[in-house]
Amino acid sequence: MIQYTIRRLLMAIPVLLGILIVTFALARMIPGEPCKAMLGEKATVEVCERFNERYGFNKPITTQFFIYMSNILKGDFGNSIRFSRPVTIILIERLPMTIELGTIALFIAILIGIPAGVLSAVKRNSFIDVINMIGANIGVSMPVYWLGLMLAYIFALVLKDTPFWLPPTGRLTAGLVSIPFYEVWGWTIAKETIRYHLVEFFANIYIFNSLITGDWKILVDAIKHLILPSVALSTIPLAIIARMTRSSMLEVMKQDYIRTARAKGLRKNTVILKHAFRNALLPIITIIGLQVGTIFAGAVLTESIFGLAGVGRILFEAITARDYPIIQAFTVVIAMGYVFINLVVDLSYVFIDPRIRLE
Amino acid sequence: MAPVTLSTDKHKDYRSNSLWRLTLRRISRQSSARVGMVILGFLILVAVFANVIAPYDPEQVLIGLEDGVKKRSDPCIHLLGCPKDQAQHIMGIDGNVRDQFSRVVFGSRISLMIGFTTISFAIIIGTILGAISGYAGGAIDNIIMRILDVLMAFPSLLLAITIVSVLGPGLQNALLAIAIVTIPVYARVVRASVLSIKEMPYVAASRALGGSPLHILISRVLPNAIPPLIVTGTLGIGTAILDAAALSFLGLGAQPPMSEWGTMLGSERNQVFTAPHLVFFPGIAIMLTVLAFNLLGDGLRDAIDPRLGQAN
Questions:
Q1: Closest chain A residue to B151 measured between Cα atoms?
Q2: At what angle do helices A144-152 and B222-249 cross, to 10 degrees?
Q3: Does A357 score more than 70 pLDDT?
Q4: How far apart are the C-alpha atoms of A132 and A175, rounded to whole Å?
Q5: Nearest to A149 among B154, B269, B311 (CB)
Q6: Total Cβ atoms within 10 A of residue B13
C-alpha cells in the first residue's frame, strides 16, 4: 500500500510539472512585454529594465521557467499587482472561505445525491425515479450563477419577514465578528510568521472556529449565510452524483449475487445496502472526486454573486483587473488540489473494494 | 458470378437498415430523447425565424421610439391585463432600454452557434489527435496522451477562464478556450475506439489487401469510431453552451451589446432584486437549451450503445 502510494505520487509529478508548464506558458503568451502587462503601458524603458532584471525576464526562457518553478516550490508565487502583497499570503487568507463553501456544497451533493440515486435505482421507472431523473437533468443544465441569483431573490426578498429568510451576501451579519480560537484561548503568536498564517487559516474557517470555541451564535449565523451559496454550488454535482449512483446501482442489481442474496431470504434493505451499494460505490466515488473540479470552477461564479471573499471571488476580480500573478497562482493551486483529490480517490479504491490489489 | 452481386445488394440493405434506421427507431423510443428533440427543434425554429418572431431589433434602444418606455420596466403582456395603450414587452425592458424578449429570441442564434462551432472544432482536433495516438501507439501515443492528461488536470471552466484572460476577452477567444479544454475528451473517446477497432478482423483484412495506414484509418477505423463520438459530442454541446454563458457572465465571452444570454445575465446581475425578470428569462433560455442537448445525448447514448450506461 505504501509502495503503491509512493508510486502513484511519483506518477503525479509529470502531471504537476505539466500544470506548471501550461500556466507558465499561458502567462508568457500574454500579448506584449510582461513588464508593460504588469506595470502598465506607461512604464519607461529604465523601469522595465529594472523590472526585467529583478524578475529574470532578461534571462533565457528555460532559465525563467526554472526560476518560476523553484519559486513555486518555495511557496513563492510573486506579488499581486493590485494589492502589492505576496500572492501566497492572499491565497492563505482566501482559501478557508472556499474550502468551507466547497465542503458544504459537496456534502449536500453527496447526502442528497446518493440516496436519491439509490432510491431511483431500487424503484426503477416509478414516479419517484422519474421525478428524480427529471430533477437531475434540470440540475446539470442549470447555470450555477443563475440559480444563485434566483435563490437570493426568493429567499432574501420574496420570503423577507418570514422565518425562511436567508441572507443573500456576506459571511456573517454585519456587527458579528468571529473571534479566532487562538485569541479565545489566549495564545500569543507573532504576526507574519508561518505559524501565524497557519493558525489564521484554520481560524478563518468560521464553522470550524466557532465549533471549537463553542460560539453557537456565530456558528448559526455562518451556516445561515452559507446555505444559499452552497445549495447553488451543489446542484450540478448533486445531479451528476445522483445519475451515476442510479446507473451504477442498476448495473450491480442485475448481478447474480444480488439474486442469490435475495433468494437466501435476506431482507431487501440489507441486500440493497450491503450487497448492491457497496459494489456500486466505486464509480460513485470516482465521480465525486471529479466533482471537486466543478465545485472549484463554480466557486468563481457563486462567490462573486454572494459577495463571499474566497478564492473564486478574488480570481474573478483578478481577471477583471488583469492581475496575472493571482490568476496564475490560483490556477496552479486549484489544479494541484484537483490532482491531489483524485489521487486520494484512486487510493481509496483499495478500502472500498478489497478485490482491487494495488500492485 | 451472380450470387456475389446478390449478396452485396443484400449487404447494402442490411447496413442501411441496421445502423441509421435502427438507431433512429431506438432514439424515437427513448422518451428523454424525444423531449430533447422537441425542445431542440423548437429552439432551432426560434433561431432561424428570430427576425420574424422578435418584435424589435435586439440591439435597438427604444428611447424616443416609444412613448413611456422606461429602463428596466416590468413585462407588459396585453393578455394578462397590461393596459392596451402601453406597448407590449412580454419579457420587459432591459437596463439599456431594449426589448428583452427580442434579445432572448436572438440569443438562441448565438448560443446554438457557440455550441456547434466549439464542439465541431474540438471534435475535429480531438479526432485527429486521438486517431493518431490510438493508431500509431508507442511513443507518439504516450506524448499526446500525457499532454492531454495535463489539460484534463485542470477543472475545465477554470482553464478556459485562464486561457481567455490571457487571450483577451471576446466571444471568439471564449469559443477557442472552450474548444481547447474539451479537446482531450474527444481525443480520448476516439483513441479508445480506435484501439479496439484496429484489432478487428476487417481491419486486418484491409491491411492484408495492402491498404495504406492512412486509408485504413480513414475508411475502415474512423467510421466505426463515430457513434460514441456523436454521443459525447451531443452531451458536450450542452456543456459548451453552459461554459460559454458562464464566461460571458464573467465578462470574458460575448461583449455587450451582443444579445448573448450569459452577457445579458451578467450585465443585469446586480438588478436581481429590482428587476428579476431580466435575470430570470435568459437563465431559463440557457437551461432549456442545455437540457435539450443533454436529453438528446442521453437518448442517443442509450440508443447507440445501451452498455454505455442507463442514465435514463
A1: A19
A2: 40
A3: no
A4: 41
A5: B269
A6: 10
Going from N- to C-terminal start, the domains of chain B cover 92-311
Residue B312 pLDDT exceeds 80 = no
Q: Is A48 left (phi over 0), alpha (psi -120 to 50) or beta?
A: alpha
Homologous superfamily (CATH) for B92-311: MetI-like (1.10.3720.10)
Q: Which residues of A touch B274 (CB under 8 A)?
A: none
A166 has a pLDDT exceeding 50: yes
* Nearest residue of B to residue A342, measured between CA atoms: B153
Give the pLDDT band of residue B308 (cuts 50, 70, 90).
very low
Residue B311: per-residue pLDDT: 40
Out of A18, A31, A297, closest to residue B158 by CB:
A297
Whole-number Å distance between alpha carbons of B248 and A261: 53
Distance, CA of A162 to CA of A154 (rounded, Å): 11
Q: How far is B14 from chain A (nearest CA, A)?
A: 31
Domain A87-178+215-358 CATH class label: mainly alpha
Can you say whether residue B305 is alpha, beta or left, with left for phi > 0 and alpha for psi between -120 and 50 degrees?
beta
Taking only residues 311 to 350 of chain A, the set having a beta carbon closer than 8 angstroms to any beta carbon of chain B reads: 315-316, 319-320, 322, 324, 327-328, 331, 334-335, 338-339
Q: What is the pLDDT of residues B218-265, one digit of tens each?
A: 888 888 888 888 888 998 999 999 999 999 998 888 988 888 999 999
Asked whether the beta carbons of A215 and A179 are under 8 A apart, the reply is: yes
Question: CA torsion angle for B58, B60, B66, B71 (degrees, to 10)?
Answer: 80
User: Could you state, in order of their start, the residue ranges of all structural domains in chain A?
Assistant: 87-178+215-358
- C-alpha B43/C-alpha A351 separation (Å) is 48
pTM for this predicted structure: 0.86
